[in-house]
Write a structure and sequence with these properties.
Layout: H1 2-16, E1 19-20, E2 24-25, E3 32-35, H2 37-56, H3 59-83, E4 87-93, E5 96-97, E6 101-110, E7 116-123, E8 131-134, E9 138-147, E10 152-155, E11 159-163, E12 170-178, E13 181-185, H4 193-196, H5 198-201, H6 203-210, E14 214-221, H7 233-237, E15 243-249, E16 255-258, H8 267-283, E17 288-292, E18 295-300, H9 303-314
Length: 316
């Protein structure tokens, strides 16, 4: 019963909230306002002050009570005006790997004369975001984070934009449902080890290909997994780190990563292994291809090819 009520409320909010591609404008009739905890205590205090002024017939007490009540009413209208007309100008997100938090960048804009102060942006059940302010004819940026439980497309959660400005007596908020998503890549996990994945991460094979047909391309620090035969001991003696000799490849082998060849692994484990191999091949600058059922990519190299392969694995 409780879950059905929560689903009904969520569906009702989504029907009324502005949705679609940014920019999205918050209409004055879609701004909700309630007394905050401080405001509720303030209201109780006003009632006690009014009772005391009536009991003693003290005009100064009446004056103070009504003056404070008027200030509270003015703050209520100020809180409402702080959100009405605000725009969700843009929303962006970068791909992440499964298990990491997806980060949605949000840009708010205001065209009204008064500046928007003390705004807070939250997404779904992630809690209240940091406070930001938007001046007239300007924009301000914020972000929300959403957990990723698996690969694929992660839809941006419903956004809640709220404020307690100017006096904190009223809690004012509105919702927006932008049409946006982020691509979540499979988690890169080496489930077979280098012995089974020699085409992807065996530096020895790369060394043999380089022999007699490579040019010196500088040095870099030693990293876990590098072949010890590539250590430049003379250069390492002049520093506190091990130094690796880099060569430019003129006949680098083409590597193929085939989904069908990983029969020993479960489907999701295959995707994680292929993701690991793609990242390793890209780190070494090798040309590689990816073979999936009904789709083949490459062989190629570079950042664009890496993104295409990872996206294909994410949406497989």
């Amino acid at each position: 019963m409780t879950q059905r009520l929560a689903d009904h409320i969520d569906a009702s909010i989504r029907r009324r909230a502005p949705s679609g591609q940014p920019p999205l404008r918050i209409a004055a009739r879609r701004v909700y306002i309630l007394p905050s905890t401080t405001g509720s205590l303030f209201g109780v205090l006003l009632i006690v002050m009014l009772a005391g002024a009536t009991n003693y017939g003290n005009n100064l007490a009446f004056t103070l009570t009504f003056w404070l009540a008027a200030a509270a009413l003015v703050s209520m209208h100020g809180a409402h005006r702080n959100l009405a007309g605000l725009e969700l100008a843009a929303l962006s997100a970068e791909p992440v790997f499964a298990g990491e938090n997806a980060r949605f960048g949000i840009r708010l804009a205001s065209r009204a004369r008064p500046a928007r102060r003390g705004l807070r942006v939250a997404g779904g059940a992630t809690g209240i975001g940091r406070a930001i302010s938007v001046d007239r004819d300007r924009t301000a940026s914020a972000y929300i984070e959403a957990p990723t439980l698996g690969r694929g497309r992660l839809v941006c959660p419903r956004l809640t934009i709220g404020s307690r400005y100017p006096m904190g007596l009223f809690r004012c908020w509105s919702h927006a449902v932008p049409t946006a998503h982020v691509v979540v890549y499979p988690a890169p996990i080496d489930r077979l080890g280098c012995r089974a994945s020699a085409p992807a991460c065996n530096d020895g094979q790369l060394e043999q290909t380089r022999a007699g047909n490579a040019a010196f391309a500088g040095h870099r620090r030693f990293q876990t997994g590098d072949s010890r035969r590539r250590i430049d001991w003379k250069a390492s003696a002049r520093t506190d780190d091990l130094i690796i000799t880099r060569h430019s490849d003129t006949r680098a082998p083409t590597r193929w990563f085939d989904y069908a060849a990983l029969e020993a692994l479960a489907p999701e484990a295959r995707l994680s292994q292929l993701t690991y191999w793609v990242l390793e091949a890209d780190r070494h600058g090798a040309a590689y291809g990816l073979s999936l059922p009904r789709r083949t990519l490459g062989p190629a190299a570079g950042a664009a090819h890496r993104r295409a392969c990872l996206e294909a694995l994410a949406l497989f």
